[in-house]
Amino acid sequence: MSDAATVVAPSATTLPSTAQKLTAELLGTFILVFGVIGAAIFAAGFADGEGGLNVGFLGVALALGLSVVVGAYAFGPVSGGHFNPAVTFGLAVAGRFAWREVGGYLAAQLVGGILASTLLLGVLSTGPLFDIVAFQGASTGYDELSPGGFGLLSMLLVETIATAVFLFVILGVTSVRAAAGFAPLAIGLTLTMLALVAIPVSNASFNPARSIATAIYGGGEALLQVWASIVAPILGAIIAGAVYKLVFERPAALTT
Q: What's the whole-model pTM score?
């Protein structure tokens, strides 16, 4: 199995450099965070829903899925299109990504996410209704940060399970058996589906970079709870990576 990133297989005849891959991860994570958090802050509850102008949970879920589709098609051929520390860990556990590259990818993802949330804060701060609490409302968590008032156990379960499902899909649609060219669509649609389930429970992260980028401007409670939005997705991704490698990528002679 190649140790190259394989969320979206590189199509160029020459392999990208490390700098190119890290830049692609930074930009892809920027697009993801800018898209989903921007939709959550500016459009989800716009005008309190009067006249049907706000996008609600469905709009935020679509923004998440679409941002991943766009980022994967644009930068997947360069970096593999992780845009998520949990995905990077899961792929490494599954043997699809080199452990020596994990640190650089995590750093690039965090920088891209924080840059996106910082620029969104700049947009918000110059608007007519500036209120930092908007970032608290977009932060992932439990109890007061959960849109539905769900507790810690519910939040940990939904983030772990959803991220595991997400990784299973990624590993499946990027395997040698999968149809070429459709991986970004499958991955984006999976995220949309999972977000529709998880938004009322946890605000649907599945991505430590997205959670950290939002929490740093979400106030004390968001910072206190961000650990759960880091641990649960990474745990789910590691479980999925290990199970997929054991069950689906064993030599045929061992599985018959």
A: 0.88
